[in-house]
UniProtKB/TrEMBL annotation:
Localisation per UniProt entry: Cell membrane
Sequence similarity: Belongs to the binding-protein-dependent transport system permease family. CysTW subfamily.
Domain of life: Bacteria
Domain ABC transmembrane type-1: residue ranges: 65-270
A GO CC annotation given for this chain: plasma membrane
Transmembrane segment boundaries: 16-44, 64-87, 99-122, 150-170, 206-229, 249-271
Name recorded for this polypeptide: ABC-type spermidine/putrescine transport system permease subunit I
UniProt xrefs under SUPFAM superfamilies: MetI-like
GO biological process entries: transmembrane transport
Membrane topology: Multi-pass membrane protein
Keywords carried by this UniProt record: Cell membrane, Membrane, Transmembrane, Transmembrane helix, Transport
Length: 283
């Protein structure tokens, strides 16, 4: 028994060392810095202080944090609405399943910045969307889509949609089809069978997809920088500016630590309310 445990730890040691040096120690360092005193211009006085957390929850930053949560939540919800039918179609696509999955993963092969730059061309006043709407007579003047919250939501949905499709697809793919056959034999309509069987059984996939979509969407700053010209901010912008522009390491560390805690709470809830089989959807 002891030999088996030692063998297991020996096999896991490379991963544990990696996590120790590239996750646990850096997060611990950030946690320590967040409770130090800011001397300005990146100066650190190792004296306990909670000023960074008071500043993080002040009116100045609380509005941006709340705004980020709303935008990330709305983007995540729209990803669910768009991704679920597509994932359902892929799970029942038969011989076309692999081809459709390949198309879902194609955006991962393209630089994220290039994908967002493409939306600048589409959304600006002289862009393709406005030009097409004016040409067919739907609008008389160009719509203001770029440099607006709508552009941020579009960027979030477009950038993170594959992260929602794949977990939902995995959940639907693992579903036992005999439940649907039993529901049909008992007289359930397809819609009722979907509500009572398919949707509840795919809930872990929806939760996993929401988790790996919402958290990155909350902290991303590239989308707001490019699609709003920096006029609108999210938490990621504040963290970047705190470290790079303001040189306020305490504020940047405090906000980073709060986001890390949010991730850990989300993972804990996912583990608590799902089975071990469903947890593989996060991998």
């Amino acid at each position: 028994m002891i030999r088996t445990i030692r063998s297991a730890y020996t096999m896991l040691s490379p991963s544990l060392i990696w996590l120790l040096f590239f996750l646990i120690i850096p997060v611990g360092f950030i946690a320590v810095i967040s409770f130090t005193t800011n001397l300005g211009f990146g100066g650190i006085l190792y004296k306990f202080s909670t000023d960074a957390y008071r500043l993080a929850f002040s009116t100045l930053y609380a509005k941006v944090i709340w705004q980020s949560i709303v935008w990330a939540a709305l983007g995540t919800f729209l990803c669910i609405v768009i991704a679920y039918p597509f994932a359902y179609f892929i799970a029942n696509a038969g011989k076309w399943k692999n081809m459709l999955l390949l198309l879902v993963m194609v955006p991962f092969w393209t630089n994220f910045l290039i994908l967002i730059y493409a939306w600048i061309i589409l959304l600006n006043s002289q862009g393709l969307i406005n030009s097409l709407l004016i040409k067919i007579g739907i609008i008389a003047e160009p719509l203001t889509m770029l440099y607006s919250p709508y552009a941020v939501i579009i960027g979030i949905v477009y950038g993170f949609l594959p992260f929602m499709i794949l977990p939902i697809y995995a959940s639907l793919e693992q579903m036992d089809r005999s439940y649907l056959e039993a529901a049909e034999d008992l007289g359930a309509t397809p819609f009722r069978a979907f509500l009572k069987i398919t949707l509840p059984l795919s809930a872990p996939g929806i939760f996993a997809g929401s988790l790996i979509t919402f958290v990155p969407a909350l902290s991303v700053f590239v989308i707001t920088d490019l699609l709003t010209g920096g006029k609108l901010l999210m938490v990621g912008n504040i963290i970047r500016d705190a470290f790079v522009v303001e040189m306020n390491w305490q504020l940047g560390s405090a906000l980073s630590l709060l986001l890390t805690i949010l991730v850990l709470i989300s993972i804990y809830l996912f583990i608590k309310f799902t089975s071990s089989k469903d947890r593989n959807l996060l991998l």
